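Regression test attached.
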Amino acid sequence: MYNDLHKKLPAPHPRSVPEYTGPISGQTLCGLFAACSDFESRKIDFGLDGRLSLLVCWLDGLVSGRSVTEDVLRPLTQAVRADGVDSEEVCMERILHGAVYRCSVHLRRDLDSLVSDLTHGHCAVLFAHSHTALTFELRSDDARTVSEPTLEKSLKGAKDSFVEVLRVNTALVRRRICTPRLKLAETTVGRKTNTRVAVLFLEGLAAPETVKELIRRLNAVDVDALLGVGTLEEAIVDAPLSPYPQLLHTERPDRFAMYLLDGRVGLLIDGLPVGLVLPVTYAEFMKVTGDSSLHFTVATSLTLLRYLALALSTLLPAFYVAVAMYHQEMLPTRLLLSIIEAEQNVPFSTALEVLSMLGAFSLLQEAGLRLPNPMGDTVSIIGALIVGQAAVEAKVVSPIAIIVVAISGISCYTLPSQDLGFAVRLARLALLLAAIAGGLFGLGAGCCLLLLHLGDLDSFGVNYTAPLSDGQPFGILRLLLRPPKPWNKFRDPLLRTLDRRRQK
Amino acid sequence: MKRALCLALVPALLLACLPLCGCGSLYANYREVEQLRVMQTLGLDPAPGGVAVTLAAAADRGGSASVCFTGRGESVSTAIEAARAHSAEEDLFTGHLRHVLIGEEAARQGLEPFLSYICRSPDMRMDMPLFVLLGSTAQEAMSAAGDPDRGVAEQLQAAQTKLEAQSGKHIFTAAEILRSLESSGSALVHALRCDTASEADGEASAGNQGGETPQMTVTPGGFAVIKDGRLCEAIDPDAALGVDFLINSVGIRDLVVRDRFGLPATLEINRGGTRIHPLWAQDGSLRGIEIYATVYATLLETESSNLSAVENADYLTGQLEAAVSDRIGAVLWLARTLEADFLGLGAKVEQASPLEYRRMGQALGPLLPSLELSIAVQGELRHSHDLE
């Protein structure tokens, strides 16, 4: 059922666990963090009585200096706390029982976990003789606050979005799903970055085999760094060579929670303001969060419109080229006469015209995205209006080709998922080349291959083209229609949830 | 490995299927759209030793007159190829032909070669309307009828629209003609006439007589009757109403009758049709056919002002029934004379009494002269907006 690519290929140089070995000591730690100018350490006398000396270490910037001073250094140097402390063990016991004002404290006996704590914003107190350390989470609060989502805007929905701090993100989800059944399994990915990744799922709802498989794949990931979604996505999906997205990205905690309640499994990565959801199908990329807030007739109409846009975006340039080059009989006479008239003085062939226009459109799109907002808009407007108009007037391209490419491009913008949009652009180009080579036969063959590829894709045991391919009746209706909420009693059977009933 | 093999097999199968789509090679059908000259009308005439073909393009929006290309050859295909040779720069594109126009002489010599070409050529469509041009050759009409504003294709389209309005949207296509010829040995084809502009437009263009070439206009001209593949008789536009009733394809058309005082009254026929009742003899042979026609019309114009509504309506209804009966009778008489079932009466008899018709074992056409034919028309004058 699952792609066993990961099983068959052993890692070329498996990660050594633990990465850092040796006794916990100030010398070892200073050696590890040599030439790290943000590494801070301070030797203090516990209770200022000279009997016991401790080494406090932290990474400046990751840890709040004020918290180190107020919550660690101050209590440790108060004489009253040192009363009766004559050994490191007693001192440690006292700290563990509340001598330091932090909510969480961890006892570390190995260097690897100590280094991990330090690099994740902890402050460590080292005990030289017993080669142990106590760590306190004192992470700096200098992070972006929760703000409105930038890509997935909603009129009626919640206005918060994920931020770069994992714990804030998990809290945003937990605020919506207030049940202990919401489970978080954390793991670390990245040899150098040690990025924390949280797997979220609802116990008793999500398919256990999906969770298990996801964790297995996460543990198998052996990369230097996890700084972007793509690294993880390409490492854990079933078909990494496919341009079609196989993990759904969302920046909205409410949408993320909705998917968890559907029985899916979520992923949150420390440092990234997006949540990933799996398993997903093609249909999920055509849905918008706002659909659930709209009346079912409106939501269904919008879904139909999006599918129409998808068809136009993928097929229109290829269909136009095929018909204009090979199958002129298919066009209505008046339209054919208009096309001939428009193409009359254009020096390039229809194929070259459409290819060049698609290229120009993509260039403008990229330029608009990469430039700062006001400049990007200007470039788009100049490109679309002035250059397009000039090209038509100079008879370099025909107006029909511009209309076809523009409709196709604008239709692509209506797709809710940007990842799907990129894949559609690639498919459009491939189909266009097929249509140039073989007309409608080429286009048909290209569509067959595309469907074959999509049908071949799986996302954690769920076919990518479901519900069209799940063998259940009315697949096309389930794909296109959003039923009224009271009728939507059951969860999708494809997800193999443990509890299928959604409501009474 | 098995999966990769499957994935590789699909493109291979698709490539293997390429010849099935009718293309000899990938580029067999390739042509740049701007090099096409879209031909909309195909004219067919006899020529010494073969066929003369005239192809007419649509009128150019730039204001130049529609262009005609002619070619001669032993067959329609070779004649079209000869016409193509006249256009070196542009490819004469016959995939958008809208009308086929057959000259009277060509129709008298026989439609079969033309119908055969239409059936077999990949450029032709079987649902293409086919017209017989009475009193002229197709080449003559197509050359003279085009002008910068309205090419022959536009004129034919206008004539077709008028015919469709009169005959309930029904225009005989090549497929229907072939089917009728196959089943009964005779068929009906819409006929057109080519008039000079002054004849067609009346007084409006009467002053425009000094031109070097008379402007021609194509107008509806009733029906042409095809028997044994050849044109044998024409039905004038007035009697064509009878055909429309008998083939149950009555559109909207005006009919002028006389009222009680002999003044003209214009009726608009809205709807009508016929149903037939075959009469069988004791020995199983067909004895006769009773034809029941119904007609619904509206009074459009009348010059009478002192008529009572009821009397006038009754009288006009009678006139309407008589006019329709006359026209149906005229067409039936022609069918009897020609011994040709071009009206499809045999099929209707078969529909009404399938077992008896099958037992009869012969076509209806030769039997027509010996059959008792009776016509009963029931008319109704509706929505006449009587002023009284």
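Expected vs. actual: identical. The radius of gyration of chain B is 26 Å.
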